[in-house]
Design goal:
Blueprint: H1 2-14, H2 23-32
């Protein structure tokens, strides 16, 4: 589980999405990506 969290954080940070998305919106965006 920790590895998955790290991958999601890395994915988010590469796109500079952290400032725009709360956890729910980030999960939706990941599923669309």
């Amino acid at each position: 589980m920790k590895e998955l969290q790290e991958k999601v954080i890395h994915f988010r940070d590469q796109r500079d999405w952290g400032k725009y998305h709360n956890p729910k919106d980030l999960a939706i965006s990941l599923s669309l990506e």
